[in-house]
Write a structure and sequence with these properties.
The chain is an alpha+beta fold. The chain folds into three domains: 91 residues, no CATH class; 83 residues, no CATH class; 262 residues, no CATH class. Strands 3, 6, 10, 11, 12, 15, 16, 17, 18 and 19 form a ten-stranded antiparallel sheet that branches. It is globular and about 70 Å long. This is DUF6830 domain-containing protein. It comes from Psilocybe cubensis (Psychedelic mushroom). It holds the Pfam family DUF6830.
Length: 490
């Protein structure tokens, strides 16, 4: 077997192992997924010799091992059979029991005097329960939730003082679920144990803003991006009222001014009721040549800049389940990070396609370089789609065409047959500058991980701080998390 062929087979086997383990850990597994697990496992065993030939299986002192005598690997043969009999593997995980053991045994006993554990643990749990109940009661009381009403309601102090009984009716917030109640009282709770493992529900907070129940600075810092995605920014910007050219200099983005000019021109030219929705004008993609020249005049001169945004989404298999929010960073270059500290994300460019069910169809991959808002300095410059929205300067990647399958003559924007991952290339204009542009922040859908293509031999100059910015080709890592895997593999 040639060196290249051996490398290809080795890469395939690694992917098949990851496929088996990722699919087996799904919360819901269909018969089709069981067949995929069986096929991936069968392919692995049929070709696992490639891993041994590559010398990748090693033991103590980094010595090569020429066999796969691994008991846990043998147990994988029974995974699909067990799933068909007993349900998905996550149901027979020991994690739940272990977590309960930590909470009701290990943690209480660690605060004892190591004498007569049982009564001390019981007393500890008793007191924690009282504190938890007291914290819950005071939180509900402070939020003025009245359980005697037909629906739970929250009434602000100002409404109560100014409107009296009428204000109570107008200020009602209908809460139909326990999750809504917990989301409402969560900001008021102070007892740490009472809110452990509790996920902040930005979806509910965004709905309160949309219904006019909550008040805050406009544009609202928590807002809906789609049915399955919501974004949250801190109340105060990281940098307030910086000049556009100053921001361009800080972030080392020389075409920021012309990019903003192109966005403003597009909004003024094309925005009409047929092209907008409740979330505002939707950018169809970062493409084409730069129309505005450097130094072009703008009716705006100041920007507010944020260095990070929180993105929250729902689970792929259980859309009603809210996931923990993740942070997307967009920090400027610094001594520690000479190219900046920023993340990559998936954005929506086709409103007819809905993440995550659509996969990458109707979406693009970008680097988030700047998160900002244009400041309207006079009433004549205020515009809902320009000054009334949070924007992002992004740099786009294009999907490289791949064969539809191994040996196929059909090529297109498909995942690479060997790894099952999309191959990306940083988009460039004809003058060899990176293709960047402005789009509304609410078009962001998900945080992603890009793996730089090192070639046959990685450059010695590569570090964790420069490997992304000095590479031009990447793989979209579908194993970054299970939700992304399901979205990109469906």
């Amino acid at each position: 077997m040639s060196k290249t062929r051996n490398h290809i087979e080795f890469t395939r086997k690694k992917g098949e192992t990851g496929e088996t383990l990722t699919l087996a850990q799904s919360q819901t597994i269909s018969e089709a997924m069981c067949l995929r697990i069986e096929q991936a496992l069968q392919d692995f065993h049929a070709n696992k010799q490639a891993i041994l030939d590559a010398g990748a299986r090693r033991g103590k002192k980094n010595n090569p091992i020429d066999n796969f005598y691994i008991p846990k690997l043998e147990f994988l043969q029974s995974v699909v059979h067990a799933i068909r009999l007993n349900g998905c593997a996550i149901q027979w995980s020991a994690d739940t029991t272990e977590h309960a053991h930590i909470e009701v045994v290990k943690a209480p006993s660690s605060s004892s005097n190591n004498q007569r554990y049982e009564p001390q643990v019981c007393r500890y749990l008793d007191r924690r329960d009282k504190l938890r109940n007291f914290d819950l009661f005071t939180a509900i009381r402070e939020m003025r939730i009245d359980f005697r009403a037909i629906h739970s309601a929250t009434i602000t102090d100002e409404e109560e003082q100014e409107e009296g009984d009428e204000g109570e009716e107008n200020g009602e917030v209908v809460m139909d679920t326990t999750s809504e109640l917990l989301s409402t009282i969560m900001p008021m709770t102070t007892f740490q144990s009472a809110k452990s493992n509790r996920i902040v529900d930005y979806f509910y907070k965004a709905s309160l803003y949309e219904r006019g129940v909550l008040e805050g600075p406009v544009p609202y810092r928590t807002f809906s991006c789609s049915k399955n995605v919501v974004a949250h920014l801190s109340r105060d910007a990281s940098s307030k009222r910086l000049h556009i050219d100053e921001v361009a200099s800080i972030f080392k983005i020389p075409d920021l001014r012309p990019a903003i000019a192109d966005y403003v021109s597009l909004i003024n030219k094309e925005s009409n009721p047929r092209q907008t929705n409740s979330r505002g004008y939707h950018i169809k993609g970062i493409t084409g040549r730069r129309v505005s020249p450097p130094g072009c005049p703008l009716p705006y001169s100041k920007l507010e800049v944020w260095h990070k945004v929180r993105i929250q989404s729902t689970a792929y298999q259980y859309p009603h389940e809210i996931l923990e929010a993740v942070t997307l960073n967009a920090y400027p270059p610094s001594n520690k990070h000479p190219f900046g500290y920023f993340d990559s994300a998936i954005i929506n460019v086709d409103e007819s396609e809905e993440w995550p069910r659509s996969g990458l169809q109707g979406h693009s991959v970008v680097d988030i370089r700047i998160i900002f808002r244009i400041v309207g300095e006079t009433p004549s410059t205020v515009s809902p789609d320009i000054t009334g929205r949070f924007l992002a300067y992004v740099q786009r990647f294009e999907v490289l065409n791949q064969p539809q399958s191994l040996g196929s003559a059909i090529r297109g924007p498909y995942p690479e047959p060997i790894t099952g991952m999309y191959k990306l290339k940083q988009s460039q204009r004809t003058d060899n500058t990176i293709m960047g542009g402005i789009l509304p922040l609410n078009q962001i859908r998900s945080l992603v991980d890009l793996v730089p293509q090192m070639g046959e031999k990685a450059r010695r100059s590569l570090t964790t701080h420069n490997s992304h910015s000095t590479s031009t080709e990447f793989r979209l890592n579908k194993y970054f998390d299970k939700e992304l895997y399901l979205a990109l593999s469906s």
